[in-house]
Amino acid sequence: MSRSVRPELPASAEEREALTHLAETASSVRAEDGFDVGAVHSWLSARLDGLESLPVVRQFTGGASNLTYLLSYPGRELILRRPPRGSKASSAHDMKREYCVQQRLRPLYRYVPEVLALCDDPAVLGSEFYVMERIQGLIPRRRMPEGVTLNEQQALLVSTRAIDALVQLHQVDPRSAGLSDLGRGAGYVERQVRGWSQRFRAARTPNVPDFEKTMAWLEGNRPDDVATCVIHNDFRLDNLVLDRADPVRVVGVLDWEMATLGDPLMDLGSALAYWVQADDDDLMQASRRQPTHLPGMLTRRQVVNHYCSRTGLLADNWVFYEVFGLFRLAVIVQQIYRRFHLGQTTNPAFADFWISVDYFDSRCRALASLG
Prior knowledge:
The protein is of the alpha+beta class. The chain is built from twelve helices and ten strands.
């Protein structure tokens, strides 16, 4: 299909949701993602007390990166994380790095899960993996979990406390956390603009725009780093855990695989690419994967204002960070779509990702006044 023809939205809300939202509940382990449960149990029970019988293993099927499993023991639930089969130990799939980040950060940032054991022997499972305690609670996906309804005041509290959790992370001293070597430090904005531009060019398929105007604008308008701090790099409401008894209280932050040292406003800009608000158009609504559209939720501008009031940082050139965040999201979506385009995955949820890439190009150009 020519990229000049903008497709119609799928007919129903359910079809639109299927484009961008994968099942998040634990289900049966996919055949290609299975492993020797006995071998893992034997290794793990030698390191943790009270694991007497084999666990029931389920898989969290959402997401497109590292694999996550639920190990259910009598009276205890653990989470196992491992890279996809065939992946190399890049920063996105480095289990030791992900484990150490959480281990070092937890004493200073209470929302980090408690990691328990790291295995670097591929003979056990076929790759490195680590195990952590499961944080019990609710995860706000495209919709709030069944039976949970937020009024406007509660929605305001959830969104405000989510941003407060990001502020608290950015206030952690990397040196005190033992994370001074987590990233390359100064020059983060420049590296990100050039790195994501290279990734897009490598992942582009013939049916999506070339983003050259947007990439040139980002390169020509990039500011200096405003600071260097620990950043999550994938901070979204659906990476948060809320208290079951008090769903306006944040009790956990998940998925630390992309954490690094970087610019805090870049982290905020990347987070707000996912922040779809109530008055966004239908195509933006189709990309929504968290309930930021609910009455009472902060708007993106209110998020920026709240963040800056808490940190003292200025965001006078906020349009740069907003465009970057959307461009970065477009690259992530395109990288996933390219795998489908090349037949490397047959997951039907990825088939129409090119639609979102096309839309993000238009949105980036509009924000940057590129025509």
